[in-house]
Amino acid sequence: MSEVPRYLILNRFGNEFGEYHRYLRPDEGRMAYLTLAAGTSVLDTANALDTVVVADLDLDTVLPAARALTGRLGPFSGVVGISEMDLLTAARLREALGVPGWSHEFVRRFRDKPYMKERVSGAGLRAPRFVELEPGTNPTLLAKEVVATLGLPVVVKPRAGVASAGVRRVDTVEALTAALTGLDLAAHECEEFVEGRVLHVDGVRVDGRFHFVSASAYVNTCFAFANGAPLGSVLLDHGPLRDRATDFAARCLDALDLADGPFHLELFHTPGDELVFLEVGLRPGGGPLPDLHRELFGIDLLAETFRLTVGLPPATPATAHTEPAGGGWLIFPEPRPLPSRVVARTSPRAVVDGIYAEVVPEVGEVFDGTGGYLHVGGTFRFRGPDEATVRCDVRRTIDCYRLTTTPAR
């Protein structure tokens, strides 16, 4: 076999996120894929070492397949799972196959919300107080204990959830008791409610420093998007708040020992001007964020994620990244009620000058509730001279965009 490194890829993407062949030069390595059937169309199967279609990407499914590939191809130099849902599985595969890279314990810091908050608060940084839920506890007693510790309102969330799925805010002891009844307590936590707008800091670190970093503020929240509201984001102007946010993020990442890798870190900016850690992922932000960063900053966050995962140097030097004056993005959720079929839609580009790219669904397109942050009711990306202008354009787009649907049968 060739001495060129071999990389094992876990793939669930059927879009450009699955174009892993773009991230390597031919002399840097070759790839073998364990992929869901829906992801095969974007893979470079012609040049792959092998492509194995699997029913799911659970560890019990992919480990035997990975061992079989190792037996045929030889040992792998790295295992990649870019999706947040595959990070822990990729870590388990590395350990089982003796492949170097991020360990399960390391990846857990970015997937288990109580664990990440323990590490961040242990470094002296403000993070929400939380209560881990003991299985078998009476829900009524547990609700009283949680409220006595955290007060009201309380946020109930999965320990390893993504995209605010399963997150609930409860405002009374009775509502909390109902929320905890029948819940898999071992897989959830309760967290104090923190008032404030949500910022996010995105980028990659190399040798313990920012190779690239951006800072933005959400328009609405991921939680609101999961419940049917549009979600947007606007780059922060250079200035004191941006500097504080990126410095706070750096200290959080230091607490988690992230020296080399990607991150998407969210934090609260409270009415009292305090920054409070929310959570962090060991991957780029979702939705239009990678596209916006490639187009405005000249950095491919997916390429950098792939390369840093397997220990390769960044695809672009820090000096190659540009600094836009202002930018942002906006997505509309899948139209309710579900399933639904599009019968008409408008384009706001005629009245919102800052929109430079839009993706709106075709008439006849069907939404079934599985689209996440990608198959959505409309996607818009913005440029502008500053944060305030872009924020105004995002708000105008929310006001004027119309998507008409009918129940799909």
TrEMBL record:
Protein keywords: ATP-binding, Ligase, Nucleotide-binding
Domain (ATP-grasp) ranges: 117-310
InterPro entries given in the database record: ATP-dep_AA_Ligase, ATP-grasp, ATP_grasp_subdomain_1
UniProt GO molecular function: ATP binding; ligase activity; metal ion binding
Domain of life: Bacteria
Keyword Cell membrane belongs to the record: no
Protein name: ATP-grasp domain-containing protein
Organism: Micromonospora pallida
